[in-house]
Amino acid sequence: MLISLYLWTQSLSLCTAEMPVLDREPSRDSGGGDGLPKLPLPALKDTLDMYLSCMKHLLTEEQFNKTQNVVKQFGAPGGVGELLQSKLMERRENKANWVYEYWMNDMYLNNRLALPVNSSPVMVFPLQHFRAPIDSLRFAAHMISGVLEYKTLLDSRSLPVDYARGQLAGTPLCMEQYYRLFTSYRLPGTERDTLVAQESSVMPEPEHIIVACKNQFFVLDVVINFRRLNERDLLTQLDKITRMADSKEEHLPPIGLLTSDGRTEWAQARSELMRESTNRDALDMIERCMCLVCLDDPSGPELSDTTRAMLMLHGGGVAKNGGNRWYDKPMQFVVGADGCCGVVCEHSAFEGIVLVQCTEYLLKYMIGSPSKLVRAASVSELPAPRRLRWKCSPEIHQLLASSADKLQRQVKNLDMNVYKFCDYGKEFIKKQKMSPDAYIQVALQLAFYRCHSRPVSTYESASIRRFKQGRVDNIRSATLEALTFVKAMTDGKLHTSDTEKMEMLRDAITAQTKYTILSITGMAIDNHLLGLRELAHELKMEKPEIFQDEAFLVSNQFILSTSQVPTTVEMFCCYGPVVPNGYGACYNPQSDHIIFSVSSFLDSPQTCSAEFVKCLVQGLMDIGDLCNKCNSSSNTTQKKQGQTLETHTQTETNWQSKTPQRPADKTETQQSLPQFVLKTPDQTKVEAQTQTPSLAETRALKNGSKS
Ligand code: COA
């Protein structure tokens, strides 16, 4: 174990410099962002105009003409739009965040789909090399110690305030999501779920963790006789748990499988469980725990990044660790005996960025205070952890079989591809004087267009934590400018010159960056349109035509669902697609490489993750080549003319100079990552050919997986 953790920490060594985070300002408010501004409400006309310009190139001419009329009618003076807008303005006055509830219900709580793959993102850790089963328990004990440390920071409200990075850097961010990490629970409902938050004034703070092992659930008290267990105690208790879990005659059905089912199905199963007081006690313990630690059995011989991502997303189904989960709980730390480790998160409580911050704290804690455990204490006074008991009616057994079957279908259906693009990273992009995020988004548009010859509604999550109770809004990355660029890059007949393509690339990136700024400043259109729709519903008005229009459906079918989840520790995030014929594309830009996690469903004849990745890699190489070619020619011209490089990022620069900056000494230190070394185009092409399968190969691959 020491060697394995040592090796692992070596791979994380880039991050140790950022370990102490306590020098940052403690939160001065309740975490709800009391000192932050309220989310603004965009002007109705701005949103409607933007809606039309976002949709024009995604619709047929006929569809667009109809939509234009519908939108005009909605926005007419004295019309429905104005009425709803005035009501929204009132709502903004009266609420801390006018969209929060609407957004939460729409995005999560009303969604009836099963949480694994469809909703719960995961963080995948580097593969651990445990030499013996006890090594994985040491790892788990060490991590739980970190959780307890982190929980102390949260409980004492001394977690430092986050400040925005990247675009419009320096403003403080709402910290509310952090306080839900270890205290909330997503309760299933037959029509709508409820995000239950444990308020310490109402309920006692949880002082136990649930450990899942071989589909059994155990209560691990982390405070006994007013004393917090140390790492050695924790290891002793985990050791006891694995022994108890080994006893086959005491095995109870894998009730956790029920939580992997559709939300309505799980709500119904939970009602059935609640008939028995034994089950009520067990559910209560799970619902009030801090988090789960899932001690997984080995899953199989091959543990590539892609395989680990899939295992983290669905547990490998009933035959593997699919029942060793409780999906309603926001934080589930998975520690596999085979070294497959990570975190599964229930998404309604917080965003991926908060998950990353917490996870990085834990991993850095483990690096900063290496485990000194050699073996578990052989004799311990500690009471044995308690196994949760279930009484299962025949109906529950039937429901379990049905949940297992559905999870198995999900396992078979997930088409995952994790790819580390190593030819360049964000430093190269910054050198082009372009926003790395916008560049990657344009590359994703190019990838999709190459695969499918059309643009589609695209979602990119944009943080609105600059505002009170802020979560996210959408950056609609399928801009007209991106479409013009990708057409030029893919249509051989157009004979567009490199200079023209470069101009189009810059236009696409400028459009993307402008939309990003609109979104992070609370002026994007998705939350606004949602607010107008929900308000009409609340007022029991007939659904306005704009929300019944086909264009509105198209606009909300996010065939490409993307998100940047950067990390400073070696790990990556992934999630599933949000529509049956779509892709989930999560990316983690690093200074000299970018990790992509692409997901889709095998039963969709329209998608193939390997093919998408292939097109993405080709697109990134093509765009990189274009930048290199144009830069070298413009450098030559500049040398001749003695001019400076023209940049197309004036808007961003102006914005940034207007933003109140965080004091320099408080700025979060960015880990210094390795210098980018630009490879020659020829070198990169050779590597791409060897790293990615051909189109024919990927098709064969997908067909093979389907058969
Ligand atoms: N020239 C040179 N450098 C530039 C540049 C330009 N034109 N534009 C931006 N950069 C730099 C930035 O200053 C920043 O530098 P840093 O790495 O030193 O901080 C870096 O490039 C990254 O900026 P950029 O790529 O533009 O993106 P960003 O970091 O601002 O991120 C979003 C954009 C939309 C991803 C971000 O605002 C956000 O909302 N993130 C949250 C996403 C989320 O919620 N994910 C989880 C969902 S579950």
From TrEMBL:
Active site: H347
Gene Ontology cellular component annotations, sorted alphabetically: cytoplasm; neuron projection; synapse
Alphabetical GO biological process terms: acetylcholine biosynthetic process; neuromuscular synaptic transmission
Entries under PROSITE patterns matching the protein: ACYLTRANSF_C_1, ACYLTRANSF_C_2
InterPro entries in alphabetical order: Carn_acyl_trans, CAT-like_dom_sf, Cho/carn_acyl_trans, Cho/carn_acyl_trans_2
Pfam families from the UniProt entry: Carn_acyltransf
Record's keyword terms, sorted: Acyltransferase, Neurotransmitter biosynthesis, Signal, Transferase
Signal peptide extent: 1-17
Top-rank lineage group of the source organism: Eukaryota
Domain Choline/carnitine acyltransferase as annotated: residue spans: 39-617
SUPFAM superfamilies according to UniProt: CoA-dependent acyltransferases (SSF52777)
Region entry Disordered, spans: 634-707
Biased composition range(s): Polar residues: 634-660, 681-695
The keyword Oxidoreductase belongs to this UniProt entry's keyword annotation: no
Reaction(s) catalysed (UniProt annotation): choline + acetyl-CoA = acetylcholine + CoA
EC annotation from Swiss-Prot or TrEMBL: 2.3.1.6
GO molecular function, one term: choline O-acetyltransferase activity
Function of the protein: Catalyzes the reversible synthesis of acetylcholine (ACh) from acetyl CoA and choline at cholinergic synapses.
Family from the record: Belongs to the carnitine/choline acetyltransferase family.
Protein name per the record: Choline O-acetyltransferase
